[in-house]
Amino acid sequence: MKKPQTSRPLGAAHTALFHQIYEALRDRIQRGELRPGDRLVEDRLAEDFGVSRNPVREAIRMLSADGLIDVNARRGVYIAVPDPAKIQELVEIRAVLEGHNARLAARRGNPKLLAAAGRILERGQAALSAEKTGSLGRLNDEFHKALARASENESLSEMLGSMRLKSSLGFAMSDPVVQAQSWQEHAGILQAILDGDEDAAEALSRSHVLKAGDRARERLEAAQATS
């Protein structure tokens, strides 16, 4: 006798939609496709995703809880404009975590995980050479996630994911010179890890984050001065 099929819990489809929209918007913010100050319109988002306004509204609530968007009853919904001082605090924490992560990746030297990071590095360098800069934000995020996996420390990887999310508003890159410098630094970090040089891997990774943080702070302070 066949067991009766269990029906999907009421609201499960709605919850899945909500998470899909949340993750899609969060990823676009992290990659710099949505910039601080950009406006989000519920009706337009619902149309883009092919859903009703309810899951869009819930996704917006969660993004607001993450500090990635600001919701104002009069002005509407906007990508949050980060505070330079807050970004600096996050950078200081992230630099320590990224540095230790690189040290662990060099110590463990997992060839499969490091090869995956190497393939992403090659794609980033190819995109840079072809001036396909639109994909660099996504590839940058993928590269850092690959290095986090290479540490083989799940708790550290989760902490880094949280730090990347919180600092992403200040880290969007559009200057081609800065993008080229960033990918050169990626190559140096990965080479130190492949060489098993824990000290160099940690130092280069920390420096990479701190330099990006300095650029972010300068850019945000300049924007505040002209607003």
Automatic annotation (TrEMBL):
It comes from the Bacteria. The keyword Transcription applies. InterPro entries: GntR_C, TF_FadR/GntR_C, Tscrpt_reg_HTH_GntR, WH-like_DNA-bd_sf, WH_DNA-bd_sf. Residues 15-82 form the HTH gntR-type domain. Keywords: DNA-binding, Plasmid, Transcription, Transcription regulation. The keyword Transcription regulation applies. Signal peptide: none annotated. One of its GO terms (molecular function) is DNA-binding transcription factor activity. This is Transcriptional regulator. The lineage of its organism: Bacteria, Pseudomonadati, Pseudomonadota, Alphaproteobacteria, Rhodobacterales.
